[in-house]
Amino acid sequence: MSRVRSGVTGHLARLMVAFAMVLSVCAQAAAAPDVTNPAVVEAFVDGVVKTNMQQHHSPSGVVAVMKGGEIIFSKGYGFIDVEKRTPVDPATSLFRPGSISKLFTWVSVMQQVERGKLDLDVDVNQYLKTFQIEDTWPGQPVTLRHILTHTGGFEDGGLGYLIIDNPDRIIPLAESLAKSQPVRVNPPGEHTAYSNWATALAGLIVANVSGVPFNDYVQQNIFDVLGMKYASFVEPLPPELDVHMAKAYGYKPDQYTEINYEIISNFGPAGAMAASAHDMTRFARALLNGGADGDNRILKAETLQQILDEGFVHDERVRGMALGFLERRFGPDGFDNFGHDGGTTVFLSHFGLSLQEDFMLFSSFSGPGGGMVHGAFVKAFYDEFFPREITVITPPADFAERAGRYAGTFNSWRSNFSKIESLMRALSGLKVTPLPDNTLMIGPKRYVEVDNNLFRQVDGYERVAFQQDADGKITGLVIDGMGVMQYYRAPFYETAAFTGILVGFSLLVFLGVFLRLGYQWAAYRALQGAEKMAFRASIAVAASNTLFLVFAGVGVSGGMTALMYEIPAVLKFSLIFPVLATLAALWHGVMSVTYWREGFGASVWARVRYSLVSLAALAMAWFYIYWNLLGFNYFS
After folding, report:
1. Which fold is adopted by the domain 38-385?
2. Do the beta carbons of residue 339 and residue 325 sit within 8 Å?
3. Using CA atoms, how far apart are residues 304 and 302, in angstroms rounded to an integer?
4. CATH T-level assignment (fold) for domain 399-493
5. How high does pLDDT run on average in the chain?
């Protein structure tokens, strides 16, 4: 009797559990709007996009949503020509998807792998004709697999040469890559560091082994095959496509100002494409359908699967790289978003796919506020239509005992290490700070520990995995969904705080030299011999350092866009002064010895004050040397 009752009770319990699970699934389904309903999608997209475009001054944008091989929603926002009020047409209007162009380069590489002309695991130097990658790490050559996963070990770079706005500066791809070959700062296969140069190199390799210039190759083997009539890597655009191009605009108070078409031809395979939203759906349809859109095939199904299965990841608990494609964190478990984002100085774009949902989202927004619209829209769309449950996590009570091991500043391996732009590394570090509530502040967001060296955003699903060495010391971190952005733990002298203190202290010291010269002008003129020479050394140090900071400040005042297009002449001129300042620092150091030995100055404090000038001068000399400001090491 009791056994029967117990069995019935157990059966009822199991039914209740099953019923609860069904209700939970239904509730989740009900909570997610129907992404196959065009009216529902349009209402959401309009609500986010229109407001943000107006608020952030984005003159044009486009969104396309595809599911099950069918375009559910596509719509243009704003105007491709503001003056003529020409509206955006998602079928024909071209946008600049930036690094989404790389996916066409990776498909081209894998086509040549299919044809037996390329091997992912051999030294790429055997595919190069006019130059070779430097043998920085003997016995460790760079391979196409390294290039596809951004683990080639190259430093990053781009100021003054990656994107230009003058077609007269276009040079052949091989010449451009030879001229701008980056330093190999790491052995291949160890660290991820996004590389436009390496991607462009992959495009050159495709051209070399196929015997067809890269732009023509993509046109013949992808665009023509898929019927992508409104897509091109050619710069400037052919006239028949240029009339459909969303113009590039800046924004001054109350009006848009047209700017030149961005030229990326010198590194074209990394980002030179222009394409319409509907043409991007054709590309997506092939990727979601085993490499073919109907009878139009660009890859074998097994090759596409290889792209998705093989790649690189630093920590299996966070998403890393497929072969060229980024694995994204959007959507619930099983959604497995992959694709790429892309940005030029004018356009910000997203291209996301899910095989499980047979789904694609493409968006692109232009203008100075395009990035703000992009940031507000993309994640919000996935969270709306493909929500991910966010559970409340209580921070471990004992986390405070180990929180300090994570504290510090972390710099990206996607940085420059040999040229003037390396200084950006010191200004863009990711700061990690333990908080009293047993959480970590990583950048602007709070995270809670969920596993050993693994943290989840408190009010979101973003994850960060820290890395440690054999001794258990934290050495770096990787962010879920950003597989090409590995960070290393920065030494104190590579942080913004230290840099600010060093430069600020030196400026105060140099200001003191000028003030002292002003109120002791008569005493200065009365000085004789070595003592006057010592004072002149202080003037030389203060003047050369101050002039560098003044001219460099003017040189960068035009903003990052101007620096991307070309290094301004005034910034080039400013680089004379670090050389003079370093020589003056050495001179001042020698004179400081003389100052003490000869007993110059009215008191011991005067001699200490003079030594402080030497200290500031030598500190700035180190600053110039370490951050590659001593000389004219830039590409133009």
Report:
1. Beta-lactamase (3.40.710)
2. yes
3. 5
4. Lipocalin (2.40.128)
5. 93
